[in-house]
């Protein structure tokens, strides 16, 4: 059985407003950040790249 390996300097629990800001600030300082969230999983290809892409989430 293959084991998943994760290497983070900081783990933020929750991606609400406070968690997302904390993750952003830690990333800006050069830390490798992991965010744990119990909600729906959003694969990378679903993340909007431009403000125009946000219409999919309205």
Label the structural class. Answer: alpha+beta
Distance between the first and last residues' Cα: 41 Å
Strand/helix succession: EHE
CA radius of gyration: 14 Å
Mean pLDDT over the residues: 88
Extract low-pLDDT stretches.
none
Largest sheet: 2 strands, parallel
Principal-axes geometry comes out as: globular
Number of helices: 1
Strand order of the largest sheet: 1-2
The tally of strands reads: 2
Q: What share of the residues lie within helices?
A: 10-25%
Summary keywords:
58 residues, alpha+beta, two-stranded parallel ribbon, 2 strands, globular
Task: Describe the fold and architecture.
With 58 residues, the protein is α+β, with helices and mostly antiparallel strands. It has a domain at 10-39. The protein has one helix at residues 17-28; strands spanning 10-13, 33-36. The protein has a two-stranded parallel sheet. The relative contact order is 0.19. The mean pLDDT is 88.
Question: What can be said about this structure in brief?
Answer:
The chain is built from one helix and two strands; from the N terminus they run E-H-E.
Topology diagram in text:
Layout: E1 10-13, H1 17-28, E2 33-36
Parallel strand pairs: 1-2
